Amino acid sequence: MSSRGTGKPMGRGDSRRVLAGIAAGVLAVVGTIAAVVVIRVGGDAVDEKGLAQFYEQPPNAADGAPGTLVRHEGLAGTPAASKAWRIMYRSTDLNGVPIVVTGTVVTPLGPPPPGGRTVLAWGHPTTGTAPECAPSHGFDPFVGIEGLRLLLDRGYTVVATDYAGMGTTGPDSYLVGVTAAHTMLDAVRAATAIPEAEAGTSVVLWGHSQGGQAALFTAEQAGSYAPELSVKAVAVAAPAADLTALMRTHLDDISGVTIGSYAFTAYASVYGDSVPGARIEDVLTPAALGVVPIMNELCLLTNIDELHRIGQPLVGDFTRVDPTTTQPWQGLLEQNSAGGAAFGAPLFVAQGDHDELVVPTDTDGFVAHERGIGIDVTYEKVPDATHATIAYLALPSLMEWLDRVGH
């Protein structure tokens, strides 16, 4: 080791000073990170105050145009170099009925580009269906947004809907594609209504699992539902795109019971009064009918062990009929599967080869279908990625792709 600029050997004292300097630098970085964490946690604690009141809808909250704000409030526990809000906004369900939805908006500090920032609408994977399972309702509403730091660093305003029926009162919308699409598009509109969010009308869609289905339906619905918005790119990780294939794969295992407890409850609620044979007792066994209401009260991420404990006895005794081959359930699964319409934006699809929930062969088939209807698909298969890790392990490829097409 030599002293830079002198060519003289570095003595022990010099080495110690250098090492001390390095150590001081490391400690400074660690201290900064710790300070940021403390600030975030402290901010999250502040944001918890008045949480219940925020999600209570005022009288006639749904009256107004889709995408307009009912209320919004600034958040203290934001990611570094950003500002953020919790939002309540208006949308519509698949039948055009006015509904109220909640979510979050976060935008980086610094000057926006001319015309405003591109808005990235994020669709979250399954967290449950009860109101308190909403991501915006959590202690840290940003922790689950896959790639958030990278997206903020690229200048995106990020908006994350909770979907209808979560966060605040609304219809159950689990895997109801058109309703999810409306809530994502109206979340973008709501972001543009906050001047400080600096949101423009260019949009990128990004979703994982259930959020992948939502993002795909959003791309399909955008032109007719929100023609003023311009979808530049669509990205999905292990999307729940083909619900028939997904249900067929898991009809007789615990994943099928867990997903089905959410999905069949939602479908019976949404379609049961208008579609003959779509009541929940038409598809589930008496044993399942006694347990499913309890499962729907439990959030997936915090109660997975309990969900599996009470759901495991139903494996093999969950459905009365095969919903993938019996009407009206077969038709409802097909109706809520993505791929019914082409869209003009390029599509990025990531799939892990160790995914046991959305299995690779199902995604292979979906990608082939999308290419067959003229969509420009980039398909990234990630070795060793599971359903839980695919959205994170795909981020390097996704960011490289977005840097080319996402603005």
From TrEMBL:
Q: Which domain of life is it from?
A: Bacteria
Which InterPro entries does this one have? Answer: AB_hydrolase_fold, Lipase_secreted
* One term of GO molecular function: hydrolase activity
Keywords on record: Hydrolase
> Lineage of the source organism?
Bacteria, Bacillati, Actinomycetota, Actinomycetes, Mycobacteriales
Q: What is this protein called?
A: Alpha/beta fold hydrolase
Asked if the Swiss-Prot or TrEMBL record annotates the protein with the keyword Lipoprotein, the reply is no
In its UniProt entry, the species of origin is given as: Rhodococcus gannanensis
